[in-house]
Design goal:
By secondary structure, the protein is α/β, with parallel strands linked by helices. It contains six helices and five strands; from the N terminus they run E-H-E-H-E-H-H-E-H-E-H. The chain has one domain: Rossmann fold (3-Layer(aba) Sandwich), CATH 3.40.50.
């Protein structure tokens, strides 16, 4: 069975940032499935449903840190208690305009995160951060 490109999920309370991220990802990876959520609770519900499906695909999650009600660290804490099935399908990057070095350190030290991306997301960020994942998926698609 051929592998698919990873799906992308953005959880950020800033609608404009979500639109920017979606446009950049689709520019680099035409045909990618990209969805954005401004309410973290909705994003968590989507992730739990999507990852629990029999045909679940890898999901690259771009998670904003500074959000009202549930911030990115709260979302990450909820994902830590999610089922192993959900966690196995996620590759999480914290996405933030935070200049606090503690946020970067916390993202680097978390067992669930794959890195920290400074806002705004750029074409270069997508190319650098997701090259390995994307290239592996494209190679499998071409077989």
């Amino acid at each position: 069975m051929k592998e698919r490109l990873p799906d992308f999920v953005i959880i950020d309370d800033d609608r404009i940032n979500n639109m920017l991220c979606i446009a950049i990802i689709k520019n680099i990876i035409p045909g990618a499935n990209v969805v954005g959520f401004v309410f973290p609770e909705e994003g968590l519900e989507y992730l739990n449903l999507k990852c629990a499906a029999a045909d679940a695909n890898e999901i690259i999650l771009l998670l904003d840190i500074n959000m009202p009600v549930l911030n990115g660290w709260d979302v990450l804490q909820k994902l830590e208690t999610a089922s192993i099935t959900v966690r196995q399908h996620l590759k999480i990057f914290m996405l933030s305009s935070s200049l606090d070095p503690r946020d970067k350190e916390k993202a680097q030290n978390s067992s669930l995160t794959s890195g920290f991306i400074e806002k705004p997301l750029s074409l270069l960020n997508v190319r650098e951060l997701f090259t390995n994942t994307i290239e592996k998926s494209i190679t499998k698609l071409q077989r």
